[in-house]
Amino acid sequence: MRLAHFSDLHYAPDNLAESDRCFSFAVGDAILSGAKVGVISGDSTDHRLDAHAPSLNALATQIHRLATAMPVLMLQGTFSHEPPGTLDNFALMGGTHQIFVADRFSQVALIDGRFWASTGPVFSDDELRGFIGVKPEVVFTCLPTVNKGQLAASVGALEAGTGVGDVLAAFLAAAGRVNRQLRAAGIRTVGVSHGTVNGCTTEHGVVMAGFDHEFSLTALFDADCDGFMLGHIHKAQQWERDGRLVAYPGSIGRFHYGEEGDKGYLSWDVEPGSATATLVATPSRQMICVDFDGPPDIAQLQEIAAHAGDKFVRVRWQIDEEHRQVVDRDAVRALFSGAADLKIESRVLPVVRSRAQGISLETSVEGKLGRWCELANIDAGPLQDRLQLLASGDVDAIAAGVLAGIDSQPESPPELHPESHPETSALATVLAHPAASLDTADEAAARPVESETQVPVARASLDWLNDDLFAA
Questions:
Q1: Keywords of this protein's UniProt record, alphabetized (predicted)?
Q2: Could you read off the pLDDT of 189-216 as tens digits, one per residue?
């Protein structure tokens, strides 16, 4: 039995051209290929739509067209994309065949082109006895999107993140017991759900691994469905076990830059105990993503632009803040003037200046000084010695040592005339401090000692070393 599996149509004003071109093609191909049932596994719309929105009218037109050729089952998808109640109106749009909206946990049997849903989550023994002899064409196990808010209210907020997987696993195990009876009776069984399988890959190549995803492959195969049709992830992928299959068709079209792989719908062939699925590619838009780690290469962009006449192009680059003006955005836009669309994304890297990177991580003054010397290419030994001297020495002793070092310096050359050496005159101006007028040792020795009263005068002239230089 051939079934056409569509998912993630995302009809909305911004997506209308892409969604309608791809879904219209898929519906036409499914009809021509002789599919007996159409299944849409969630997210038919991208967000809440007004009743008069052209995108809603376009979606209804294609659903009605599909229902003219085959029965259609529509599953409730993500609430933010398909607000509860959005699909109710589609149940009224059936053509020759019925459109069934699966918005609760249930099993649904297709008998003579009509859908019959279980009273509870799975068919009871009485319900099975009532129709198993009629031999339905196929029985669907339907798991619409779980309302985590309701789950949190019943099991608590802390358990809601991981508890949804346990709830779904319990339901799938219960459905598996029924599906094994149906398979034994030669009846096809198909699961339909919308959510994330732990370990699947997104359209951007990211592996979804964690404890808060709805499904594990073990739980899905425990449902004992011949085929399990999934929605929500936009990349087509499938898993097989003992002839049975779990598969995503991916989104019907390409809605974001950087999406990997072909877009399309799955054509399923399902028989009791086995299933196969083939991806039928739709005419989705072609996107080119060009990334530069620095300013864009105009020559490379010219080569790409020559073959980008009907494509959607995204150009990304990152550049330092001081060089941001070297990129001519208008020139880039002019290159891709013939493209279907151009998206430019530039990332400006701010200039970060650090006087001594990592100095704040040091816990001691010695460490901070050593780090600064390392970054400044300065020998830390002499500075560390002076730091130790300042930390442990007496102020008077340090000053006396400095003065003694000055006195031990070799004699200065003969005094030069200030006019020939103006820097000497400038130095004298800067050193116009009482200490600068002290006599040198030779001058003091040559001058006769007039009285002992001169000694206190000389000593008093050194008091400026100990005085507060900044006192008022």
A1: Plasmid
A2: 999 999 999 899 999 889 988 666 778 8
Rounded distance between C-alpha atoms, residue 116 and residue 134, angstroms:
12
Beta strands in 282-387 (DSSP E): 287-292, 312-320, 341-349
User: For residue 413, how far is the Cα from the chain centroid?
Assistant: 73
Are residues 171 and 219 part of one domain? yes
Query: Looking at the structure, do residues 197 and 298 belong to the same domain, yes or no?
Result: no
Going from the C-alpha of 63 to that of each of 47, 77, 101, 398, the distances in angstroms are: 18, 16, 12, 94
What would the pLDDT profile of 380-392 be if each residue is shown by its tens digit?
Answer: 888 888 888 888 8
* Host domain of residue 331: 287-349
pTM for this model (two decimals): 0.70
Q: How far is CA 51 from CA 60, 62, 65, 89, 152, in A?
A: 11, 16, 19, 10, 32
Whether residue 311 contacts residue 338, with contact meaning beta carbons closer than 8 Å, is answered with no
Identify whether the C-beta of residue 390 lies closer than 8 Å to the C-beta of residue 398: yes
3-state helix, strand, coil in the chain (%, to 5): 40, 20, 40
Q: Are the C-beta atoms of residues 24 and 177 closer than 8 Å to each other?
A: no
Q: Are 203 and 10 in contact (CB under 8 A)?
A: no
- Crossing angle for the helix pair 157-184 and 148-155, nearest 10 degrees? 110
> What tokens does 102 get?
């699966």
What letter represents residue 291's amino acid?
D
**Backbone φ and ψ of 237, nearest 5°:** -165, 155
Domain count, the chain: 2
For residue 235, tell me if it sits in a domain: yes
Q: In whole angstroms, give the CA distance from residue 402 to residue 390.
A: 13
